[in-house]
């Protein structure tokens, strides 16, 4: 279990860093963005493993990684987007969008609705996680400077 | 100088900040503020950030009675509405790709302007520096396309072999995407061809008899195309009350997903046609 978690963490770090670079993050932020993305993914992975639904896992993971992005953005004086965008990339329902459109083309309405619903739920959960974490008062974060 | 400015992004070629007068007119300030917002929006800044930036700049240069309305693909701004020199700008900003470095730099510049209120010519020069800056070489972006594809292939349940294949399919895909977006080809064509290419190669490798999970390879590579960020942003916009921006991003995400489906579906149909079995 621990070994799988470590492998997942490292791979998620590498994948997030790669997409942070594609989003043209400056070199000084590659590592921070990667760690944030990996933590979000690991939280999601553990919650999924504990049999929580996709939606709840994504909501909690996004909430945690948005909080961390806010703290980091205070410390390193960068906009929150710098960490948030690469950070949510592993959680974002890319595979869901793919399967939804795949079943649409393959003319399989049952699977299409199931996957489509799941995709929208996950996207909604991510959005809510971000909004909740961004709505916390700014004062909480003045501790980190 | 203002006559040079016809509904397009400012460029050093048509505009030299040194020509500006000592005290800028309302139009000069508004143009600068909207230019800043334009660059921010074009590179993936959030709606509220763009609005804040424009408002802060207008305030710093002592405009009165100003307002701004930002959509995910357009900016409307006006200043000094009840004075002689009232002016307004409408700007169309096509949806672009994300550039975090430019967002951070514009953010820093707008903060500097709000705090120190520097000369507008200095601010223009800074702005052009940001606009023309280029951070990463192409080969690095291509390599990262491959690494990212391989990583996500593994995270979504592919084996190590699948990831290695995804790496080698992902690099040319990144190359293609960068080239096509420089050429300003239709985004839809880009996504159809890109997803068809990925599906064709992974099905071809499956056809050769390799023990692979072809759909994991496709998903890993397609992370470069799939509008996951656009979908999440759109729902975030909707929750924020920016209904129009949310709808624009949502439509963009759905249409992009359709294009990917067309590319993938066409190649799967081809595979079925050639081999007689569904992959």
What structural category characterises the helix and strand content of chain B? Answer: mainly alpha
How far apart are the first and last residues' alpha carbons of chain B, in Å?
Answer: 62 Å
Q: What is the radius of gyration of chain A computed over CA atoms, rounded to a whole number of angstroms?
A: 16 Å
In sequence order, what are the helices and strands of chain A, one letter per element?
HHHHHH
> In DSSP terms, counting alpha (H) and pi (I) runs of 4 or more, how many helices of chain A?
6
Report the biggest beta sheet of chain A as strand number plus sense, adding barrel if it closes: none
Percent strand of chain A equals under 5%
E-strand count of chain B: 3
The chain-level structural class of chain A is: mainly alpha
* Helicity level of chain A: over 70%
Pattern of helices and strands of chain B: HHEEEHHHHHHHH
Q: What is the straight-line distance between the termini of chain A?
A: 36 Å
Question: What is the residue-averaged pLDDT of chain B?
Answer: 87
The percentage helix of chain B is 55-70%
Q: Percent of residues of chain B in beta strands?
A: 5-15%
For the secondary structure, the number of strands of chain A is 0
């Amino acid at each position: 279990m621990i070994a799988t978690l470590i492998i997942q963490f490292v791979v998620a770090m590498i994948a997030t860093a790669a997409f942070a670079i594609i989003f043209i993050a400056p070199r000084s932020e590659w590592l921070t963005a990667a760690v944030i993305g990996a933590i979000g993914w690991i939280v999601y992975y553990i919650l999924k493993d504990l049999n929580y639904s996709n939606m709840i896992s994504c909501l909690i993971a996004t909430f945690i990684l948005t909080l961390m992005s806010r703290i980091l953005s205070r410390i390193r004086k960068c906009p929150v987007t710098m960490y948030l965008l690469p950070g949510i990339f592993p959680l974002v329902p890319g595979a869901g969008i793919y399967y939804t459109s795949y079943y649409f083309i393959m003319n399989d309405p049952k699977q299409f609705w199931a996957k489509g619903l799941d995709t929208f739920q996950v996207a909604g959960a991510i959005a809510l996680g971000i909004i909740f974490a961004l709505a916390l008062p700014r004062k909480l974060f003045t501790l980190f400077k | 100088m203002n006559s040079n400015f016809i509904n397009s992004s400012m460029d050093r070629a048509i505009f030299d900040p040194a020509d500006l007068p000592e005290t800028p007119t309302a139009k000069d300030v508004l143009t600068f503020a909207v230019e800043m917002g334009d660059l921010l929006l074009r590179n993936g800044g959030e709606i509220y950030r763009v609005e804040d930036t424009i408002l802060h700049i207008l305030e710093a240069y002592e405009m009165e009675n100003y307002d701004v309305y930002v959509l995910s693909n357009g900016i409307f701004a006006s200043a000094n509405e009840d004075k002689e020199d009232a002016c307004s700008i409408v700007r169309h900003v096509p949806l672009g790709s994300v550039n975090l470095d430019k967002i951070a730099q514009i953010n820093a510049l707008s903060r500097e302007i709000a705090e120190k209120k520097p000369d507008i010519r200095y601010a223009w020069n800074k702005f052009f520096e940001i606009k023309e800056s280029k951070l990463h070489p192409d080969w690095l972006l291509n390599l990262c396309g491959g690494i990212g594809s391989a990583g996500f292939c593994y995270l979504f349940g592919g084996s190590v072999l699948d990831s290695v294949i995804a790496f080698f399919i992902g690099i040319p895909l990144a190359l293609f995407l960068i080239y096509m977006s420089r050429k300003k080809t239709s985004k839809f064509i880009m996504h159809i061809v890109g997803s068809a290419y990925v599906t064709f190669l992974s099905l071809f490798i499956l056809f050769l008899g390799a023990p692979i999970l072809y759909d994991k390879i496709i998903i890993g590579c397609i992370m470069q195309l799939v509008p996951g960020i656009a979908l999440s942003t759109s729902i975030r916009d909707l929750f924020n009350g920016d209904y129009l921006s949310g709808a624009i991003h949502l439509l963009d995400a759905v249409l992009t997903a359709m294009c990917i489906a067309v590319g993938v579906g066409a190649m799967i149909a081809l595979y079925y046609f050639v081999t007689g079995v569904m992959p």
